[in-house]
Amino acid sequence: MVSMSRPALAALERLIEIARGDTAQSRRVANFLLAWWNAKSCGGFDFADLQSVDAAIADDMVTVIQLIATRSESPCAYGYKTEFEKMLADWRPHLAEPAAP
Prior knowledge:
This protein is mainly α. The chain has one domain (6-91). Helices cover 59% and strands 0% of the residues. It has helices at 6-19, 24-42, 55-70, 81-91. Helix 1 crosses helix 2 and helix 1 (6-19) packs across helix 3 (55-70). The chain is globular and about 35 Å long. The mean pLDDT is 93.
């Protein structure tokens, strides 16, 4: 697993927690995170959505953008595969693999 700075780790964890919600901001955060994970399958991110979230959330998104810009790692490399798979199931159920019986 690849390490990241404490500020980036804290920002990412806050965003993951927000994406677990069921609000317009949660949807925007999930769109952002899923675009990082796999934009081709999950869809891109509309940067105008940065204006549609609270300032603290936008700051966290910018922190993660800086992480993405300086590293070529996916969220899975940081140990967040399970969280992103859950996010995919919640926000893109048509893309999630069905659970085993």
